[in-house]
Amino acid sequence: MIEAEQLHARILSRLDMTRDMEDEELTELIYEVLQEASQEEYLPLDQKTMLGKELFNAFRKLDLLQEFLEDEQITEIMINGTQNIFIEKAGRIIQSDKRFLSRDKLEDVIQQIVAGSNRLVNEASPIADARLADGSRVNVVLPPVALNGPIVTIRKFAKEAITMKKLMEWQSINSEVSGFLALLVAAGYNIFISGGTGSGKTTFLNALSQYIPKNERIITIEDNAELQIQNVKNLVRLEARNANVEGTGEVTIRDLIKSALRMRPDRIIVGEVRSAEAIDMLQALNTGHDGSLSTGHANSPKDMLSRLETMVLMGMDLPLPAIQRQIASGLDIIVHLGRLRDKTRKVLEVTEVLGYWEEEIHLQTLYCFEEAYKEAVNVTEDEEKREIRMERKVSGDWKKIAELCHREKLMAAGYHI
After folding, report:
1. Rounded-to-integer distance, Cα 394 and Cα 373, Å
2. Which residue from 217, 242, 247, 316 has the highest number of Cβ atoms inside 10 Å of its Cβ?
3. Handedness of CA 178, 182, 188, 193 (dihedral sign)
4. Which among 122, 119, 112 has a CA at the least distance from the CA of 145?
5. How far is residue 30 from each of residues 26, 127, 266, measured CA to CA in Å?
6. In terms of domains, do 294 and 168 share one?
7. What average pLDDT does the chain have?
8. Residue 197 has what pLDDT?
9. Would residue 417 count as lying in a domain?
10. 401, 368 in Cβ contact below 8 A?
């Protein structure tokens, strides 16, 4: 049976390396080689079409990754070396039967990806974050750090920006909570979005941004540009930069936040707070930039506060009470997201930061998601893997727990609830 790598080698031997070949010319060469191969061994039309697409992607695009990237149902691609490729589809992780031809080919694809984001990755600097042209987030880890070969993880984002209306259709939030948050964003409340990995923090931040008044000047700051702020004309997008080969030229999130404060922003949006930049973000929130937004990893709103305290201490040696006062003064609302056992993503809690007294930050839950505990159970048996799967659909609704305490910003903006 003729293998794709044999066809790849034949095409490579006929390429004219002295000039750039147009896509049409390459396509003609691929199908010329496929026609010759089909004379040696019968190739069904569907197989010939599939091979033609794979070979074109191998020469012009991201090899077999291209097929995964074009499949809108796939949300995550995980490459563990050349032989083990996993994808997440409809919330379930499955192993693909696709394989890279060689480690060299996989490394070529990696270099193509990171070069597109002006990043560098090699044995001396084996870890890199990058993004694809469609905004998909890419993490790369190379040997010797990765023991089982080059590791690539790609988080895909929807081609069209996800709106709050779409989130309501997916039952990630209801109209009451959505309308409440829309008022808070428009009135200039500082909102922090927390949640675990894959809970949809960036997607939710994008959706919230649709409620920002269109006449404001917005500055976004990110490690890798992923935000899709909607319908804001006066928008400045800033992206951090790693150091070059000589170890110079690094531009950190902290540097960008400090610079943003001199750019006359109405609001500052920090894509994700991970480290010492938390102190600069809090200073921005406490210096008149109302309506700013950010995200961070945490298991609950209270845990998010503890993580922020730790991150501030990474950047500046301050007494804990001083840090807590800064957090309590800067943050107004924490929206906590979660990914439930049925793989759905939901707003689990909307919490108000009441203030700092008695040596702690006090919180008040405004809305929370409560399960109905009436789960539809679908039991399926996978004969090949000899597994029994129980698919439980989580149902429930959002319950209002308390009224908003601090309404000064709402009243100043002319809103009433």
Report:
1. 8
2. 242
3. positive
4. 122
5. 6, 35, 54
6. yes
7. 82
8. 85
9. no
10. yes
203 and 130, same structural domain? no
Domain closes at, from 33, 60, 87: 60
Which string of b and e fits 60-71 if b means at least 16 CB within 10 Å? ebbbbbbbbbee
Which stretch of DSSP H or E encloses residue 169? helix 164-169
Asked whether residue 360 is assigned to any structural domain, the reply reads yes
Region 372-398: what's the mean pLDDT? 61
Residues 6+ apart with CB under 8 A from 117: 130, 131, 138, 224
* Pair 339, 402 in one domain: yes
CA 152/CA 92 separation, integer angstroms = 18
Please name which of 27, 34, 44, 42 lies closest in space to residue 10, comparing C-alpha atoms.
34
Instruction: Copy the structure tokens of residue 270.
Output: 């920090």
pLDDT band at 17, cuts 50/70/90?
low
Cα separation, 229 vs 235, in Å, equals: 8
pTM of this structure: 0.78
Residues 280 and 377 in one domain: yes
pLDDT digits (tens, 9 = 90+) for 196-216: 988 889 889 989 988 999 889
**97-111, 117-131, 194-208, 388-402, range with greatest mean pLDDT:** 194-208
